[in-house]
Give the backbone structure.
Amino acid sequence: MTTLRFRVVEKAFQAKPHEVSIPSERPSDYFAKYVFNREKMFKYLPATVYARLIDVIDNGAPLDRHTADLVAEGMKRWAMSIGATHYTHWFQPLTEGTAEKHDAFIEHNGKGGVMEEFTGRLLVQQEPDASSFPNGGIRNTFEARGYSAWDPSSPVFVVDDTLCIPTVFIAYTGESLDYKAPLLKALRAVDKAAVEVCHFFDPDVKKVVAYLGWEQEYFLVDEGLYAARPDLLLTGRTLMGHEASKNQQLEDHYFGAIPTRVACFMKDLEIQALELGIPVKTRHNEVAPNQFELAPIYEECNLAVDHNMLIMSLMRKVARTHGFRVLLHEKPFKGVNGSGKHNNWSLGTDTGTLLMSPGKSPEENLRFITFIVNTLMAVYRHNGLLKASIMSATNAHRLGANEAPPAIISSFLGEQLTHVLEHIEENPDDYLLSVGGKHELKLGIPQIPELMIDNTDRNRTSPFAFTGNRFEFRAVGSEANCASAMIALNTAVAEQLTVFKHEVDELIAAGKPKVSALLHVIRKYIKECKPICFDGNGYSEEWKAEAARRGLDCETSVPVIFDQYLAPSSIRMFETMGVMTQKELEARNEVKWEMYTKKIQIEARVLGDLAMNHIVPVALDYQSRLIDSVYKLRGIYPEDKCRELSAQNLALIEEITSRVAYIKEHVDAMIEARKVANRLTEVREKAVAYHDIIAPKLEDIRYQIDKLELIVDDRLWTLPKYRELLFVR
Ligand code: ADP
Ligand code: MG
């Protein structure tokens, strides 16, 4: 008898790389082929309409109905010229993925036929029948519906036959029901606050842009093997499976040669990503077997978020062409590294300055130090919230597991920057040097004024590391919408810069010279934010104790971590920065708790099913063969000899009996525990029960299953094993 497992493994071994047709043009020629970018706007729109639209995009000018109609017309002509027949409002609900509902361009033409039509009204606003998207009770299905509204700052694009229009998704009462709306508000807040602070150094700055460069990690698994693992199929991760005898200990996968079949997938993905205007740049093998990474050149944050959402769906699609499934889950396999999505973040001005980058002159370096220290203060003040912003049922498996950042937010600065900050802190007076009536900053250490911060100074255990000209927020999950982290971070920095500006202004008003006022506040902050700065080993037990002593948030329970969103300091921050109201925060937390509960609930059901109808029957089948053999030995040998020969079998029979009994008992107990938890009516309480009571049971049951996997006859085992999932490609 060959089981499904043997058939799919054989097929996976035989899979051939899927040919990719490489375009004859260069990437610079086909880049953004399917994007209605400025070049195409210019070509397809009347000059006055083009100018007005650019004003809308760059300066947030209002869009009048007439202009919208003309823009829609131009968009439609362009989209139809590349084969589009449909359009959709593309939005990012709180479920983590993206949502779309396609409509054809056709309308009655009044003569019994149809014509292609697309108006400004359809472009600008729609009312998706989206009553079943999570909204935390904000949107009562019977009264206020939600609508999606065009975000002109992210260009429309065509996927297959559909024109996709990036939109925000909000309730009629104004509350946001998605990730994009608060992100745009957070970006506006940080822009406004940072411009004000920039004016201390450069009065010409009119706009500050937040940049994001994400690094997407993922696994690839052969699709046949994937289909034979119901847990992967339904939950995105393996709920059982003993570690393979070899995994990542030889470190032979990281940066190794990319396997041919995978390389074909990557090429195909990159071509399609470039055509959609996503500037993908870097690809390599990651630490775990069958794990890889993809990173673009950084972009404006809102666009970068859209591009990450788009590429995740593109990856899922392209993988299938190559006989793979892509796993974006943070922890698909126990015992090997999980996947994250580092968020490289920085601020830059419209005058071309990267604010997290040291400059050449003393003024530039004071500006650099200003933004670094304010970022540290923001991260310090809101470290619990930042952790909440990256937390999820799936990311919880990765954080704090000695492979990814610990579940405590701290910041790594590196030796040089630490030294600079210490110097500023310790030398209150030797900075100011009056040259011709002008205050100049003298930082009496060799690195300054030509400050070169070395970004090779790395600490992989730090969740928020300074890397030369940016901060790298490393705790974000691979599956997450980066917007969640970016909303929290940009809002926190906006609030902090606002406070800073206020404090400096007060000192200046009291007669302190500007540079001296700036340094005074910076020095105070350097002292105050010390608890967040940590350059040591984030995995160590000592750090956990030390972090607690420093007052950093050390909570590890996901549902409890979400409370941070409702902490008075968070509500105040989001409200004063105009990003979210308390009502929105409460509603969104309801969604988070509900999602958490559902994810654990699904995992518990899947594990229960698999345990009872895959694992236990196979184990009992094997056991009955062992019993058979014991009986048969009796027919041949005398009692004593028989006992001796059967000793091994009898031990296995007993082991199977006890493990199966444990599994059965605990699956039943897990079902009972779910029943009890499900009766809880308060969403937070229910999520806490799922975390405290049900999630640990999954681990206990798994342990027994994994032990059975080691002793049961390999020929009977139905589920593809780790060695197959991780090493066949
Ligand atoms: P590493 O693995 O060494 O961190 P990668 O090349 O994998 O580096 O990714 C680095 C990411 O950081 C890229 O997306 C890159 O575009 C981005 N990045 C570089 N400089 C900045 C910056 N100033 N602001 C934001 N992102 C940046
Ligand atoms: Mg990288």
About this structure: DSSP finds 23 helices and 19 strands in the chain.
